[in-house]
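Sanity check

After download, print the first record. It should look like this:
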Amino acid sequence: MLIQSIIMAWESVRSNKLRSFLTMLGIIIGVMALVVMVSLVNGATGVVTSEISNLGNDLLNVSVRDDKGSPLRLQDLNELASDETIRYAAPTGSMYTTAKHGYSDINASVTGATAAYFVIEGMELEAGRLIKTVDVENAAYVAVLSHDAAESLFSGEEAIGKTITLGGRSFRVIGTLKEDDSLMSAMFSSNSIYIPYTVESRMAGQPYISSFAVAAAGDTGAAEQAVADYLLNRFAQDDDSFQIINMSSISSAMDTVTGMLSLLLGGIAAISLLVGGIGIMNIMLVSVTERTKEIGIRKAIGAGRGTILMQFLIEALMLALFGCVFGLLLSALILMIVSMIAGSITFTMSPDVVILAVVFSSAIGLIFGLYPANQAAKKHPIEALRYEG
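Expected structure tokens:
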């Protein structure tokens, strides 16, 4: 009986191709909206979360707003780093200037670095060496170049041992870094040059530390508390004199925000599916009216209420599922095109989203198909046979 009902439902859908397609259109658009929106949010979230993780979930960024006449110096950071909850601490002072080599010149971000800075930021050396503690102590005029800065200044030639000019001062290149292909690098200037902090602070006219980074030895909460206690003691217990940004907190907040965004967009897209369900119910009511005599004949030869109900319910479910399948195929195509345009970001349909779309579409088909199916099932066979509409 079930197989016969499925065959009859299929014949009904197939015999009215255009009407069936227009009926499915609401479900197709609803599924596309649901899948594409949620997949885009999930893809973007994955990239942003990965970038934040690459920056380091054990990282604290600290900025000093008011030093209360007791400014921080490099030796103070060394004292802070001796705390058992802190692995490294390094200043993050920077400035912009023109870097020159021969006939090449670029606008570069120049950062005052220490040996710990490269470890905290997770930078990888490509050639040469990084800045050492002795370079900072002796205020040596040496520089480490980012991959892009080296390419711009030396056009693929060997940079190690060559001389560049920064703000009218000559620096010897001692190292180059591996190429950074992260999203953050693409968003900001990648022409970066790193020189000893003592040299950069002198060039910038900023002898004191106004911002620094801390890598936690374990629990970032404990490291954050240690930094806060140290700064409170130094700055007269004024917690407005500094700001601490915990990267793990940002990551957690990002997960919460994007989770809520996915639910919001999914809810908006679900409205489209509801509209599609109303379309199914409307067409199924028309179909019931058109096939009144057919219903009367089937009841006259012994078809029960349950059989008629099942036939029309399966037809509604079939329309919803076909619409869902077409919607998923078009969604995959759209996500493929968007991924090609985005380049560095790949958007894919997760199994959870596909299952959600199928379940929701099936529910829409059953719920909105139930009333028309019930209307067909409760028709009286004699009145149905007399119907001349």
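If your output differs, re-run the checksum step. Summary of this record's structure: DSSP finds 14 helices and eleven strands in the chain.
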